[in-house]
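INTERNAL AUDIT FORM
Audit reference: QA-55
Scope: verify that the stored structure record matches its stored sequence.
Auditor: D.O.
Record contents follow.
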Amino acid sequence: MHGMSAKSGHLPFVIDAAEEEAAGDEHRNDGRAPRKIGLAGESLTEFFLWQFCENVTRAAEGSPYDVLAEYQGRILKIQVKTSRYCTHGKNQKAFRYDIVRKSNYRTLSGTRTDNRRFREGECDLFALVAYDLRRVVFTKADHNRKVMTFDWHSFEIDEIERISFASSVKRLIGTSGAC
């Protein structure tokens, strides 16, 4: 893990993709259904977005993003991923996010779930929610990754929501010229 500060513009990530793929989900189970935890993550994301954006709305069911936000006249498509604490590596607490778009379809033998990466244009930002801490880190959508893991210290940075949102939007505008 890297221990860079928010002042340098870098957050402490776990960046070994092979290790991330192999890490198992050892999430605590308190009886809440995953869908309810996901909805809570979307609501928390909207709460923070209202502090930075002119308008925020929940996307239609089935959209490749969960929230639309208007920021400085630009519409941002935001995919929300919510995670509980999990053990990663040497019993270090981290938050693991499966950055895939799940779709169910029927076959002759039953229903299958397909997990695929998000395609360019499907979403602009990921909002990674640390459910246990009630915090959100925003990041520019990385369409090449299927898993992201954040050290829990990332979420303890003062104003991480504002810092990560501003940084992510800046990277988004800088790479595409527009949102």
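Auditor finding: record pair retrieved intact. The two ends are 31 Å apart (CA to CA).
Action required: none
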